[in-house]
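Quick one, T. Sequence first:
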Amino acid sequence: MKDSGPPSPPANSPAGASFEAIASLDSIDRTSSDKASRTLSRSSPSAASRADSTLRTHTHPTPTNTFLHRLRAGERQVGLWLALADAYPAEILAGIGYDWLLIDAEHAPNDVRSVLRELQAIDSAAASLPAGRPRTEAVVRLPSADPVTVKRYLEIDARTLLIPMIDTAEDAAAAVAATRYPPHGIRGMGSGLGRSSRWRRFEDYQAAADTTTGVIVQIESATAVKNAAAIARTPGADAVLLGPSDLAASMGHAGNPGHPDVVAASCAAIRAARAETSPAGVMGSAAHLPDWLAAGARSSPSPPTWHCSRTPPLTSCSRHARRLPRRTPAGRPPRCGAPGS
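Structure tokens:
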């Protein structure tokens, strides 16, 4: 006997109306609740009303990006770099109460799905934090500045992006534009299908997205160092991050980010960013932390800066910041701090 599946409830019964509503909802674009209501109302006005209510209730404003808010205010923040590509350690670390955790999708074996799981894990850890403690915010380093890649990570609610290999102000402007809706950018209008708007539960998401999405750009080449001031002043670029390893390679010192020329170039870029009132940080060895701090990558009322225990990156920096040597050890390259910094 042919299996025809479970019998359908009678179409004129309340159960039948509910079944029809569920089946119709499963086959329509959830971003169009009005269309859903019209489709369902032909069979049952009450079912249409319930479906429309389900799609529209429990909405609230888009949450504040606390990492971005505190960064702009110049507050000190402490965090770690995640490269394990797994949600379990992400949840454990977020439950400790770090201000930020950076998920690396450039050099770690992450993709959109694994980053999604880590974002969900970081969010879930908020339930284990003491009352009143701000939740840990995630920062995601993208594999590239490609607009399609940017869009996909934004839709899984990566709210602060670290974008690598920015060489010019034009590169920085293009990266920012990929995160903004028209007329200020080129981001596609797909948030209704995404976690970014919590499937339209954030009622004002599209209006608020431009102000709650953070963009940090990486300066990682000799060309970028020359253009550091112009990059830092790009509207929508919230901070710059120096990458000494790639910078060293571009300067002919691959594998030696501690070369005096590389340290000097890093310091020059930090000073340029500070002059534009942009937060500036460095991802690198704590051995050269005194140089970078002297150049301006440190806590200061104005302009705000971020570095190690301030906001990303240096994972080991929070351990060393309180016991930095007062003097440069013998054999170290000369300090490159700016006068008066």
